[in-house]
Design goal:
679 residues; alpha+beta; 3 domains; eleven-stranded mixed beta sheet; eight-stranded mixed beta sheet; 24% helix; flat; HET; Heterokaryon incompatibility protein-domain-containing protein
């Protein structure tokens, strides 16, 4: 991803003058100028907001100077000295600038010497990722302290809109303007993002909703090949859906569906589909026969294609349930925002206004990426990961997401941030026209932990989420696993092991749970004990190390699928058989203690030991050394409990012992090997 800093905003159209330039709420350009001038006190107007002073600070962002050095360049920053008493007096009189300087958490300063500069905007392939920022330092000398660095934006028709590139957020979701902003993002991605897959209409789902007449949508069954675009919906059910497709009503739905009976989220999706100029919409509740397990397995197996080949995905992120909808207006930002005068380049008499958003690290925009209801549902993660382009209806605004970037629509950028777990890595993720073969053990896959960390991070994100049906634990991630498998060009039966990868098994087996996030072991079988899918709650992977020596020999892996239609899906039974070393241990309240096989009566406490569940397992356990990490002199492995049958065990935990002094790699290799099976 190429990111550049700089100001490449398009100038305001010459026709946008006078009242039209400002907006219908201001009678004239003179009134607007006077109103903007009154935002600050006389002292501030004569200092920072004097034309030449402000332009000095503003134009410094275009100088070729690293920003961490800017505060030391007197020809780039604007500096001025005032008194604390003067700031407090002006605050009482309503000066926006002095109020911002004296508002917590900015009240720690004792000096009254300030330096002000602006940081350039951040772009990626021509798309605005990060807004320009206003940075203020306080203190004299060579090392002033940063007071704040906040993103700035302005209104579309403000006089300074050709210099301040970011805009205010779209809050009205069901408006033609917001739809246009969304379509602009989609079209820009298709036209300008070389790394994002282009829509090629190579696949069409078995069934879609024909939205030609939103007042009478109908279920379309594609008996013949159709090469047309379609839209998909990703949403939280959150409740039962009485009106869903079954073997009983499927023929009636093909004649038409009364929208009165549809939940609001699906009605909103139909409106959005039509507003964006599209005809077909895929919704799981209506396009999968819900009372046919055979149809469910077949259609779930098509999920990777359904989402990857869609023109775009509608993600109803803000809706906690299907009856809630997602097109209601968003509330205005809850963060503090200060409006200040802007001295335009076109002349000292031309004054605009910009807004400073008091959000230093972009928490307001980042919050919905983790807290909106959709991020609690397991199925929705793969739907987002598989989608080429998505419109995300968050609790704060409408966002556009593709395989390159995530942005607020309408250039409403603030702080540039993105979550790696919200997309598949572009440099290796497969696309229909780019099926490059590769191996999960190749240097390219694991260089700088890239691929392994990606899978680990996806599992960590996914395992935090809930699945309504426990036996869907692996099924709800099967589409993502399929894409990994497609890239690695191997058959699932020999490669994908209940959420782990055969060619990276040593690493993948070392997942662990945090002590404060343990749950009882499920009574419903859904995966072997060595798979993360066998436990509830967040799972974390281990780090990759450049030099690891395996201390076991894998003999066989046996897995029985629930359905052959889902080779990356549910597991009916599974086991690993290996030749391995076993060391007796005691797991007490104070920690895990390994018995030293080379010293009678000696035992050592292992540095890290994580239980998988809250179940009572007794004190006596066995540890299975999996690998030795040379640089850290670290031993890592599994904690096992014997099963009823001799030679059979199940996993109950994981351990790592850094700076291992009680036993060496050579000592372990000299121990007797045992043929064991882990269930």
């Amino acid at each position: 991803m190429e990111q550049t800093a700089g100001n490449t905003a398009q100038p305001v159209s010459p026709s946008n003058t006078s009242c039209d330039l400002i907006g219908s709420d201001i009678d004239s350009i003179e009134d607007y100028t006077e109103t903007t001038r009154s935002l600050v006190c006389d002292d501030c107007w004569k200092n920072l907001f004097a034309h030449d002073s402000f332009r000095k600070a503003w134009d410094g962002q275009f100088r070729d100077v690293p920003f961490f050095e800017v505060k030391s360049h007197e020809d780039i920053v604007f500096s001025y000295v005032t008194t604390i008493d003067q700031i407090n007096r002006s605050k009482e009189e309503g000066c926006s600038w002095c109020t911002m300087l004296s508002t917590p958490p900015h009240t720690f300063w004792s000096s009254s010497a300030f330096r002000i500069a602006f940081r350039p905007a951040l772009y990626c392939d021509g798309t605005l990722l990060g807004a320009q920022r206003m940075t203020v330092w306080v203190g004299q000398g060579a090392r002033p302290k940063e007071l704040f660095s906040y993103p700035i934006y302005t209104k579309l028709r403000d006089p300074c809109a050709n210099e301040v590139v970011a805009r205010d957020r779209a809050l009205q979701m069901k408006s033609t303007r917001t739809v246009k902003l969304a379509l602009d993002c989609i079209h820009d991605c298709i036209a300008n993002h070389a790394t994002c897959p282009k829509p090629i209409n190579s696949f069409f789902p078995t069934r879609v909703i024909d939205c030609t007449n939103p007042m009478k949508p109908k279920l379309l069954v594609s008996l013949a090949p159709i090469r047309e675009p379609y839209v998909v919906l990703s949403y939280v059910w959150g409740e039962g859906q009485p009106y869903k497709t079954t073997t009983i009503n499927i023929e009636d739905y093909q004649r038409g569906i009364n929208p009165i009976f549809l939940p609001q989220t699906i009605k909103d999706a139909i409106w959005t589909t039509r507003a964006c100029g599209q005809r077909y919409l895929w919704v799981d509740a209506l396009c999968i026969i819900q009372n046919s397990r055979q149809d469910q397995n077949r259609e779930i197996g098509q999920i990777p294609n359904i989402f990857a080949d869609a023109y775009f995905t509608i993600i109803a992120a803000r809706s906690p349930g299907v009856s809630e909808g997602f097109l209601h207006d968003c509330t205005p930002p809850s963060v503090s925002i200060t409006r200040l005068p802007f001295r335009c380049q076109s002349g000292s008499a031309n004054i605009g206004a910009f807004f400073v958003e008091h959000d230093n690290i972009g928490k307001y925009d980042e919050g919905p990426d983790t807290t909106d209801p959709i991020h609690k549902r397991a199925w929705c993660l793969e739907e987002r990961l598989l989608s080429a382009r998505s419109l995300i209806y968050t609790s704060t605004t409408l966002r556009f997401h593709c395989q390159l970037l995530t942005v607020n629509v309408g250039a409403a950028a603030r702080e540039s941030h993105d979550l790696a777990t919200h997309r598949l890595a572009i440099d290796w993720a497969p696309s229909p026209e780019d099926p490059r073969p590769s191996s999960p053990s190749s240097d390219a896959m694991f260089h700088y932990n890239r691929s392994t960390t990606l899978w680990d991070n996806i599992i960590m994100n996914y395992s935090k989420r809930y699945v309504t049906n426990e036996d869907d634990k692996l099924v709800a991630l099967a589409g993502v696993a399929y894409r990994f498998g497609e890239r690695w060009k191997k058959e699932p039966s020999s490669m994908y092991l209940a959420g782990l990868w055969h060619d990276n098994l040593q690493h993948d087996l070392l997942w662990h749970k945090k002590a404060d996030d343990l749950y009882p072991r499920s009574t419903l079988y859904r995966a072997p004990s060595w798979s993360w899918a066998s436990v509830d709650g967040c799972v974390e992977g281990t780090k990759m190390y450049p030099k690891e020596w395996g201390l076991y020999e894998l003999i066989d892996c046996n897995l029985e699928l629930v359905s052959k239609d889902l080779p990356f899906g549910g597991i009916a039974s599974g086991s690993l058989t290996m030749n391995a070393k076993l060391i007796q241990a005691s797991w007490r309240a104070s920690g895990l203690y390994a018995s030293n096989p080379l010293a009678v009566g000696g035992e050592s406490k292992l540095y890290f030991a994580w239980r998988d569940t809250t179940e009572e397992i007794g004190e006596r356990v066995w540890i299975l050394p999996l690998c030795w990490r040379a640089k850290a002199e670290e031993l890592a492995g599994l904690v096992l409990l014997p099963n009823d049958r001799e030679g059979f065990y199940r996993r109950v935990g994981c351990f790592q012992d850094g700076a291992c002094a009680w036993i060496s790699k050579d000592d372990i290799e000299k121990l007797d090997s045992h043929k064991i099976t882990i269930l």
